[in-house]
Amino acid sequence: MTLTNNSKRRKELVAIAARLFCEQGYERTTVRMLADAMGIKSGSLFHHFNDKQEILCAVIQDGMESAMTIADQALEGLTQPKERFKALARAHLSTLLNDRNAHVVALYEWRSLTDESLSVLIDMRDRYEQLWQQVIDDCVETGLIKGDQPLIRRFALGALNWTVQWYDADGEKTPDDLAQALGELIGLG
Amino acid sequence: MTLTNNSKRRKELVAIAARLFCEQGYERTTVRMLADAMGIKSGSLFHHFNDKQEILCAVIQDGMESAMTIADQALEGLTQPKERFKALARAHLSTLLNDRNAHVVALYEWRSLTDESLSVLIDMRDRYEQLWQQVIDDCVETGLIKGDQPLIRRFALGALNWTVQWYDADGEKTPDDLAQALGELIGLG
DNA sequence: TTTCAAATCTAGCGCTTGCTTGGTTTTTGG
DNA sequence: CCAAAAACCAAGCAAGCGCTAGATTTGAAA
Q1: Which Pfam families does this chain map to (chains A, B) (predicted)?
Q2: Which chain A residues have a beta carbon less than 8 Å from that of B158?
Q3: pTM, to two decimals
Q4: Which residues, given as ranges, of chain A have pLDDT below 50?
């Protein structure tokens, strides 16, 4: 196998792993559980991944890539700070709640990553946060919001990320409703 | 041993366990690591706790009790909704960042609890959230904030809980600064 | 049809895990 | 000072863990 294999089969396996890691946590999910859910024997898993930790890394990486792509698309063509903020919040909630498995894993399980995997993922996360920071900086500079800019970013992302703890997809509120509500709460009616 | 032993020794052990669980996660922390850090042999651990999971439960329980106590104290004597909100936010950040170990564990590791432990802790959490809900309801009813009330509570607690991910105790901002900043962000200057 | 790599299986190794048991030391209350 | 209780230790068991090695099957290209 190649080190960073991106075959279709591998993507499928990663999605299955994401579900199990999300449901039971990384450490409690054994390679045998993963293999069972994938319909193969545990030994065969190591044809696709060098070790268990690599599966975890792949899950988180897929989630982050998807978040980045959707955020970029959402901002395309928008110039007004207020609209950009609201679009970014909608995009964030959209990935967060659609690719929920991967994102829950990313939020909960990064401590099980090797330093090497971690540094790759931290780079991705930093790039994503920079996107947010620019949008928030614009809101502050045009006087739409007041306050310490990095702090606002952290509060906003905290409020949004926390939704995975309580959001019910079968409920009445859509992710877009939530994004709108957050905008209103911080004065971006 | 009694089932819910609350001896001083046990409290010490729970605090040590909180540190290890916070640093490495519950599943990655072995009973041997715990025993080493406590200065005893791994077998002796089971004189104080029936099983490993009970240690986790005790860690979270201690954290929640402390949060509840501090919140009650903070609200005592305050009647103005705005002041009550800000006091509650200060209290929340104060426990969150002082008893950080226990609270990080509570946020990250509840999936490793048995159903029995979980139901006890969920009751405590619900009571705590009710405290927040009342304060927020007052703010909305007196026109200080606008929006869906449970949603505001969730956004606020999300923003606050997320601080454990990035807050640096050696930095320039105090927990009180953060509480103040959150208040300003949602229009409670 | 032959070839060859990718994908899978079979079988199990070496190690760690949570936890138990039975005995010893330390602490404490009368 | 002494007995009972609490705390601890030494030794190890049974189960499960991540992972490996070598053989076998599958599937597409030549």
Answers
A1: TetR_C_24, TetR_N
A2: 158-163, 165
A3: 0.94
A4: 1-3
